[in-house]
Amino acid sequence: MQSAANFPVIWNLSPLGSSSSKVQLVNLKQHRNKAHSLRCLRSKGNEEEFENSSQDKLGVSSVVKEDKHKDIWSLFREAQQNILYLNKQRLAAVEELEKLKNEKVELLERLNQLEAEIQIIIKKDKSSLLWELLLRIDSMVINGLIGTEEASSMRQLVREHEANISEFPLDVLQQGDDAQVLAELRRFPNKGKRNGLHVIHICTEMDPLVSVGPLASYITGLSCALQGKGYLVEVILPKYSTLDLDQVEGLREIEAVTYSYFDGQLHANRIWNGVVSGVGVTLIQPLYYGSMFSRDKVYGYPDDVDRFAYFSRASLDYIAKSGKQPDVLHIHNWQTAIVGPLFWDVFVNQGLEGTRILLTCQGFVSKCLVPPEKLELCGLDPASLHRADRLQDNTNPQVVNILKGGIVYSNKVVIMPSSPSEGSTLHRKSIPGLEPTLAVHKEKLCFAPFALDNSKWDPSIDVYLPENYSADDLRGKSTCKVELQRQLGLVEDASTTIVGCIFSEISDVDLESLKSLVRSTKKNDVQFVIMMMDEDQMMIIKELERTDEGGNLRVVKGSNEAVSHLIIAGSDIMLCINFFQDPLLQVPLKALKYGTAPIELNPQTMHVGGTHEQEATTTAKFYNSLFGRMSLGQALDLMKKDGRLWELKIMEAMEKDLCCDVHVSAYTSIKEPVKKKI
């Protein structure tokens, strides 16, 4: 296509007015119009071409951008997923690490627990093995395999060898007969001696075999505690049909029967041996009088006197027949009190000259009053015993008092309440019908408090404490103190001395003395925490709290078990009216158990049966041996001047077992080379 500029232009110089000129002008205009049209067409074509080209270019660019956009989002999403995955992995790793840490802690705790359990099992197994051997010796005597003299030597050998008892071949003990066991015993080396007395309980209950009242837990707890001190303790029980025999380890029946005297004849008994809670147990099963102990209940039958007289006589016959020579026969309540006169009148010369009798009386509600003729059933002479100085009842001279006979014929009598509340009766009141007897035999008497329930009152496991503690590690006691201060709004300082007081509704509190003591002790920077259960007394002490400028006194209303546990654990000193009041609360005993020194507010003299003064009782001696007869001021001075000595006294007190120590003292006191005289 030619450009419009290339069209020829014809110039005509003719005059303007002429016709030729006009024609030329028209032609010129036409040429110009054509050229303009051509330029317009070219321009339009160029524009369309450019527009098409631009659109093509824009389309390609848009596709590229869209692809890049998609790639970017794809990479972003992939990166986001990777980040989320890494975070998830990191969290899983943290959780796994935490889990491993927790598992490590749990594993260590479990290892410690297993170690403790293993030590208990080892101790239990040794004790069980010891008793299985001793009871097999009984079987050898009953079966006529050895005589009583050799049996005594064998028992002594086993006792002395207790430390290495695990060396005895178990397969022989478990599968062999008496002859094989005897052969091994005769080869037994003599080393590893045991110290302590040999005690046999003749009783009617033992936890967990048969439990009716407090006697059952007392027998088991005392037996285990004594064996922990090196004593050899065993228990003889009737074989009730209701016994939980699943609790007996190694239960076996002795092949030969034994015979015991009753109602003018000898009667056969089946003997069963086993181990319960590490204590050797012998069960006596009457054959002819089989119905005596095949009943639904332990007590409460019209023939209870006959039943337990039979059992008492059968127990002594078994001991004599088996050649046992215990240091102490420990009898309990009226049910086995008849053992006392039976022992001294019938059995003492049957190889038991060195044995002594200890009677525990858990209350005096039942004394067992029967006609004198009943004594003949078990081989006693009514005529010689129906006397005022022996078994004749002090109130009704026509009958005999079996419990009185136990007191008269025992070398020592331990008086215990059958419940904490009964302790107030023993402490404050006379004992009807037995006052003259207790007065005559006052030198025999000692008092043991009702034992604490260790499942509730033990600082090492107490659920009410913020941190548990023991005599080996007292750090938790400071934590308990600070928590007590926090709960009561006192200044929180573990170094501040806290004096606690807990009084029941029956407490005979001298409020004026208490108020005076609180005021006079302020200068020592001491905090007082007083729990009271009597509303009137509490209001009086509350008034003192309101006027206390130092803010170191708090009065708490009673009946809150959690707070009472915390007060006893968090206090340094426990102020008691005296050591023998409030038997229901047992504050002095709990204080000692929790490392808190019991101090008397009003020291008094206690009488048992109206005769026995406090200073002469084993219980008072026990308290006095730890903290003497300290006043509050003296105790505070000792804490301030010699903190280490105070801590040693606290640790010693926590490790004491008052009930066990009372019995150890009683056993030791009667093992003198002087025979019993009636």
Automatic annotation (TrEMBL):
GO BP terms: starch biosynthetic process
Pathway: Glycan biosynthesis; starch biosynthesis
Keyword Ribosomal protein: no
Coiled-coil ranges per UniProt: 83-124
One function term, GO molecular function aspect: alpha-1,4-glucan glucosyltransferase (ADP-glucose donor) activity
Classification via SUPFAM superfamilies: UDP-Glycosyltransferase/glycogen phosphorylase
Entries under Pfam families matching the protein: Glyco_transf_5 (PF08323)
Keyword list, A-Z: Coiled coil, Glycosyltransferase, Starch biosynthesis, Transferase
Protein name, entry field: starch synthase
Organism: Raphanus sativus (Radish)
Annotated gene: LOC108805072
